[in-house]
Design goal:
Length: about 180
């Protein structure tokens, strides 16, 4: 088989989870389309978006799932998690409650997924420096305690958005290849 054909085999399902309005949909919009919605409601969510990534010279496809606002009612279904091999667990660094809820999301993820999902803890809205309610050290420390990758991002100014997705995809690739 050609290199081309082989790369078709790599399609990883990755889910975005975390409280409402932490920026999940905008992280995906920034990553997949380089767009940002300043006043987005949960309605911009698409079911999933497929994005090609280059990992060690190989083409890998990430199928990234976004909620359509179900998280508002804690009604994310098991179908959402099914088959996921990666997850971005997102909180908003300017809203402490969203960080305190991370444990519940992690539980939910572990309950619904049948394998070890490569997970990165994402502190989004790092641009909101003056409104910060969660320190970088706190995020890092939680991630270490739970065995997660960690990064702070801003969907607004783009910082670390691609790195967040790439970190997860790279690790999945390394595990499976
Ligand atoms: P979701 O409910 O988790 O999907 O959150 P959204 O992506 O819909 O974002 C909720 C709100 O936060 C919107 O008004 C976004 O414009 C805003 N937002 C998202 N990401 C950022 C960010 O990195 N920085 C700032 N300042 N606002 C953001
Ligand atoms: Mg959303």
């Amino acid at each position: 088989r050609s290199e081309e054909a082989q790369t078709e085999d790599y399609l990883f399902k990755i889910v975005l989870i975390g409280d409402s309005a932490v920026g999940k949909s905008n992280l995906l919009a920034r990553f997949a389309r380089d767009e940002f919605y300043p006043n987005s409601k949960s309605t911009i969510g698409v079911e999933f978006q497929t994005q090609k990534l280059d990992i060690n010279g190989k083409e890998v496809k990430a199928q990234i799932w976004d909620t359509a606002g179900q998280e508002r009612f804690r009604a994310v279904t098991s179908a959402y998690y099914r088959g996921a091999v990666g997850a971005l667990l997102v909180y908003d660094i300017s809203r402490r409650l969203t960080f305190e809820n991370i444990g519940r999301w992690l539980n939910e993820l572990q309950t619904h997924s049948d394998m070890n999902v490569v997970t990165i803890l994402v502190g989004n809205k790092s641009d909101l420096k003056h409104a910060r309610e969660v320190t970088t050290a706190e995020g890092k420390s939680l991630a270490e305690a739970q065995g997660l990758f960690f990064i702070e991002t801003s969907a607004l100014d783009s910082s670390n958005v691609a790195v967040a997705f790439q970190t997860v995809v790279k690790e999945i690739y390394n595990i499976l290849s």
